[in-house]
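#onboarding

Welcome to the new folks! Below is a worked example of what a typical request in this channel looks like: someone posts a single protein sequence, and someone else replies with the predicted structure as tokens. Don't worry about understanding the tokens yet, we'll cover that in week two.

Example request:
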Amino acid sequence: MGRRAWWYTRTTQDACGGGHDDSGFSVLDFSLFSTFRDNLSQGRFGGLSGIFARDGLYGDATRLVTFLDNHDVGPQNDWKYRFAGSDQALASALNLIFLARGIPALFYGTEIRFKAGLEIDGTTAPHASSGRAYFGDHLLPASLPSTLAHPFVAHVKRLNQLRAASPALQKGRMEQVGENDNSFWFVRHHEGHHVVVGLSQGGDTLSVGGLPGGTWRDAVTGATRSIGAGGTLTFEVKAGSAAVWILDGPGKVGVDGVWLR
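Example response:
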């Protein structure tokens, strides 16, 4: 299913994907995941836009399940280890899968960097010390406040708040996608709702044009811009953070953390 996932999501025989109907099935987005070995796991964004350009092959790409790692495989595509990269690389990866099209799936424990880098399972990974092991002491009443205070718990909480701030972040299709190794940006639209998302590893100034006119507000920083029809948003993104500009949006959503600020 990872190689021919589009086949399950539409109801025609058209191999090019045109004129298809949505089958109602959703599948894991292994096509996107397969790029992570060379970009997100290394703290880069290059190579993502080509995957999103093929969204037309699916019945409805917004229903694909996106993931960084799971119970069988890590983002290095090694089929063995949990994500072991830097905290900033993980934050940027989570920014992508929560703000891009699709339905994000979080491998349990990622929100506290549980067993980071350890073997998920196998003959050399006894359950008690493997990356698939039970949380253990992390869920004891005495430990739970510390578990919930982990900065990645706060990061995931705010990403969910941002995602809830606009239907375009939940159901919008990907448009005007752009990238370089350091940054990634895109536009999403859904039934009159519009959002521009910018992601950056090292900090960057991004410009996105051809946008609907009106007042745009960044849900991360609270900044405001007014542009005319077909205008351009130019904005800064801090290292490891994101910009989430929503047309007629609510302004700042949630509380600043280590990576969303």
